[in-house]
Structures are given as C-alpha cells and as structure tokens.
Amino acid sequence: INMNREELLELVKQKDDIEKELNELADELKTQNNVGMTEALVDKEGYPR
C-alpha cells in the first residue's frame, strides 16, 4: 500500500477516536451494576441485566 504521511496520520486519528469511544462505552457499562464487556447480558434467571 502506497500512502502519504497525511493519509497515515488521518488513519491513526480515526483509530484513536474509535479506541476512545470504545473506552467510553466500556466505562458506561461498568456504571450499570458492574456490567462490563465480559459479563453475561442476562441474570441467572435469564432476564436482561
């Protein structure tokens, strides 16, 4: 792939923006009764958390 410096910097910025958004979403989940990225989406009775 042949790309110039500006294109590379734009891709790095997009990656950083995506990572920031993912971290914000993960933090929001953690504030909701400790629901994170690895916990079950339903409780032990099968109801959504």
UniProtKB/TrEMBL annotation:
Signal peptide as annotated in the record: none
Keyword Hydrolase (UniProt): no
Keyword annotations from UniProtKB, A to Z: Coiled coil
Coiled-coil ranges from the UniProt annotation: 1-35
Pfam family, one: Nas2_N
Domain of life: Eukaryota
Nas2 N-terminal domain sequence ranges: 9-49
UniProt KW Protein biosynthesis keyword: no
Gene3D superfamilies: 6.10.140.1710
Protein name, entry field: Nas2 N-terminal domain-containing protein
Organism annotation: Adineta steineri
